[in-house]
Design brief:
By secondary structure, this protein is an alpha/beta fold. 31% of the residues lie in helices and 15% in strands.
Length: 154
């Protein structure tokens, strides 16, 4: 799969220039992508164009940690760490992690961070996903299920 394939697939699925998208993704679900996460992000940016905006979660959360027997006895079903601001990786996946670190991407503060790129990127810093939620934004789930949609938690 290459960039042109992804752009064509996004267009066929309704992504248009000027759109505001909250994107959740799993690169593993794609199979082989020539250029990896960078290619997916480039295709997304090309698809929404300079008048569009892309938001992705940048939560400072680790992947799930192993549970001890004591955790299980206490009824704990998931254990994670809060990561530092300067993290390279998180539980958000390689596409979101790569997006967050790119030039031109802005990221909010706190633990529940959102990253944004494009016309309304500053809104990721000032209001997280509020701009997308209140201004006709759409959700794009690329290999991720609906339970990963951060906007549902607002």
């Amino acid at each position: 799969m290459d960039k042109s394939f992804i752009v064509n697939a996004l267009r066929k699925n309704g992504v248009q220039e000027g759109m505001c998208l909250e994107v959740h993704s799993s690169l593993k679900s794609f199979g082989y992508v020539e250029g990896g996460a960078e290619t997916v992000i480039s295709a997304l940016k090309e698809s929404v164009g300079s008048e569009g905006t892309i938001f992705m979660p940048a939560l400072r959360l680790s992947p799930a940690l192993p549970l001890t027997d004591e955790d299980k006895k206490l009824g704990i079903t998931c254990k994670i760490k809060i990561l530092p601001d300067d993290r390279k990786k998180s539980a958000m996946g390689i596409i979101a992690n790569t997006f967050r670190l790119q030039n031109g991407t802005l990221t909010g503060s706190g633990i529940m961070q959102i990253s944004g790129w494009g016309k309304h990127a500053q809104e990721a810093v000032t209001g997280g996903l509020n701009f997308a939620i209140h201004n006709g934004g759409k959700a794009l789930l690329l290999g991720a299920d609906i339970y990963k949609l951060t906007a549902m938690h607002y």
